Amino acid sequence: xxxxxxxxxxxxxxxxxxxxxxxxxxxxxxxxxxxxxxxxxxxxxxxxxxxxxxxxxxxxxxxxxxxxxxxxxxxxxxxxxxxxxxxxxxxxxxxxxxxxxxxxxxxxxxxxxxxxxxxxxxxxxxxxxxxxxxxxxxxxxxxxxxxxxxxxxxxxxxxxxxxxxxxxxxxxxxxxxxxxxxxxxxxxxxxxxxxxxxxxxxxxxxxxxxxxxxxxxxxxxxxxxxxxxxxxxxxxxxxxxxxxxxxxxxxxxxxxxxxxxxxxxxxxxxxxxxxxxxxxxxxxxxxxxxxxxxxxxxxxxxxxxxxxxxxxxxxxxxxxxxxxxxxxxxxxxxxxxxxxxxxxxxxxxxxxxxxxxxxxxxxxxxxxxxxxxxxxxxxxxxxxxxxxxxxxxxxxxxxxxxxxxxxxxxxxxxxxxxxxxxxxxxxxxxxxxxxxxxxxxxxxxxxxxxxxxxxxxxxxxxxxxxxxxxxxxxxxxxxxxxxxxxxxxxxxxxxxxxxxxxxxxxxxxxxxxxxxxxxxxxxxxxxxxxxxxxxxxxxxxxxxxxxxxxxxxxxxxxxxxxxxxxxxxxxxxxxxxxxxxxxxxxxxxxxxxxxxxxxxxxxxxxxxxxxxxxxxxxxxxxxxxxxxxxxxxxxxxxxxxxxxxxxxxxxxxxxxxxxxxxxxxxxxxxxxxxxxxxxxxxxxxxxxxxxxxxxxxxxxxxxxxxxxxxxxxxxxxx
Length: 718
What we know:
5 domains; magnesium; pyruvate, water dikinase activity; EC 2.7.9.2
């Protein structure tokens, strides 16, 4: 660790710059290579002592301790980790750089002038060491116009030690970020006719190295924005073995110079490297920008045959979710115009085959076919729909960086008012409930379970079942059909209509767009529109996938029904795979058709007050309704607090009945939080063991402002 006597800034030629504890791994690597005579882009290092001084003077050291206290990042979902990181980044953004640090940076750059524009590259003390590689996990800032801009970006550089991907990776390695430090490497930007990266050992074959290049900044390759040209070189013979990718005007001599320089760096640092290089304009002399060890994530080979999101440890996949603005725009186009419509079309086609008309062998084949279709779409959902949600996070990050609000989640107000399909569906339910509110006699007859004597209600009900009927499977609706819908609208009619929030287009949007200079305002508008679309599709794509799943389950339920005489009631819990096999093979009997998890409800889990994440503002109270499955949601009654493991998109039809939502899953982008904000309901997410802590009927006070859920007395007082 850097001592109190360590300077705040040092030159890369300074001996201390070779110490990762002082200069961070990235800067230390450049310093060591420069001392050995390799052509590096030298510069100045903002030491880890400056980072720790910043934490002390701003009070962030204590705030960080309380923010991450008790959080197990290994068990948290990506949405929750995103939120923690976003809150930390906003606190860093709002903190003031001390005059001591500011003056040191300005004075050092004046004494050692660097040609503008400048690059400020992250260099963490725990990164780029053997066994660790934080490539792309921390933030660097390019094309900064002057020293003042470098100072202004230091808080965000320091904050990137706590980025969501860095938190996930450190938890993977068992590293504590509070024991790490962040340094910064200030370098001149080098205008190059080509730039790229070089892996001294190819990820495909360690006997070879790989050079990638394109005619723009190297960061575009690292982020995946650019398609590189690629050369594979034999490490020993130095022969180019293969060329692929885009065209770029680099000679064989250029490629071999890069390869030779990379191998010299590997020899000096004693480990395989991932090197970023640049070929300056009007020169054939390659320069090294940075060099870091190549390593694979621990556990990356675990469950190697499974999809990344299906593995026991999903963190490597979760770390890969970030996308660039351009990539997000393309994802939005595909999800909105191709994936969702195609899901809906496949669901309609599957429903064209009546499961009840097939014999057992035909039904088994139909289940197998539908299961394959569902799995294909489920894969597409994780590959493309989930990463699109990053557009919302990107909006939050840009909003906070430009506006620096007190509330790191103030940007949520920019997202409400989208026409989520789930909200459109719920509005149709409220339209039917309005007819009952206006006609007491009709309301009374529906409450008795009688068929509605109203052409208007019958017409709306038929329209609703035609459009959304298949989404009712996995709930009581699947068996009860129209009767269940009528029961729901009768419950809705007991209180006034609850309408979704309407976007005002007021101060938040004006403040956000007004924070951009005129020449960047178009980007701000495009980002806002993209994030709103991604927020809407976070609901819509799930409902589209739900339609595909419902078509699958229509066939599975028919198969289960036929198997009850042979297997008994346990047949109703068979998986799709076992249902198909039992139908195909009359002799097959699954070993464990119904394995019920022991949820436990011990007294040790019960607490009077729990803390989670404030995901929907407001305060409300009501009796708890514990919902452990889709079937349980049908029991929710008006004014109850919905307490669940997660709010499935197929469950959100009942949300307008709730007084508030408490969910085990954490994060601003879980479905419970999204639908709660649309209706202005208090919502607290990330409450561990939520369904075990509370019991049905207990009075709860839910504070969506500070993330607290409290059990209260029968009189309704805390």
